[in-house]
Amino acid sequence: MSPRADTTSGVRRFSRTERWVHRTTAALMGVCVLTAACLYVPQLAELAGRRALVVTLHQWSGLALPVPVLAGLASRAFRADLGRLNRFGPHDRTWLRAVLHRDKRHESRPAGKFNAGQKIYAAWIAGATVVMLATGLMMWFTHLTPLVWRTSATFVHDWLALTIGIVLAGHIGMALADPEARKGMRTGEVSREWADRQHSLWRP
After folding, report:
1. Is 83 exposed, middle or buried (0-12, 13-18, 19+ CB in 10 A)?
2. What is the pTM for the complete model shown?
3. Cβ distance 58 to 36 under 8 Å?
């Protein structure tokens, strides 16, 4: 019997360190988004009150956002998955074509451990985090940069924050639609049947 023939057994998808990195990053990102909403939406600002505290929470949660990922680099499993996320192959282009043509057949969407959509999301959110951190620091330490830089940084920071909020909402919505994927992030294991169906090229 082939190593993937038993569809009833579980498959290890994420290590404990990887799940810790994801949860901690998600918590910090949640604080950033929530505090940003309280700073920019008048109704939420009135409910929250204590603007100075909200600003402080926003600043320090944003500054801490890269810390879980940097700490996770000590894990071999985490580094291996970063390598997988950073590699884009012919099957990923096939997956994207199927999505663009609304072809929902699993055989039309080949994927390794991560599909093309997950790779694009990971790259985009990583880049957006770096930009948000850089522009946020310019806005925080106003004496370090010229006024024109700070004005531009504020514009980029605000509009990118809105984009991040929309993208995160889509990410959460897709997670809610896939209980098995959530189980993988919660427990570290997924069913072999799900792995074969959703990630046919993955060989755990």
Report:
1. exposed
2. 0.88
3. yes
Q: Quickly state the pLDDT bin for 49 (edges 50, 70, 90).
A: confident
> In whole angstroms, what is the distance from residue 101 CA to residue 29 CA?
32
Answer yes or no: are the C-beta atoms of 186 and 14 closer than 8 Å: no
pLDDT tens digits for range 177-199:
999 999 999 999 999 999 999 99
| Helix pair 16-40, 51-64: axis angle to 10 deg | 150
For every residue of 100-161, which 3-state class applies, written as one string?
A: HCCCCCHHHCCCCCCCHHHHHHHHHHHHHHHHHHHHHHHHHCHHHCCHHHHHHHHHHHHHHH
Cα–Cα nearest to 12, from 184, 196, 157, 201? 184
pLDDT tens-digit series, residues 18-40: 999 999 999 999 999 999 999 88
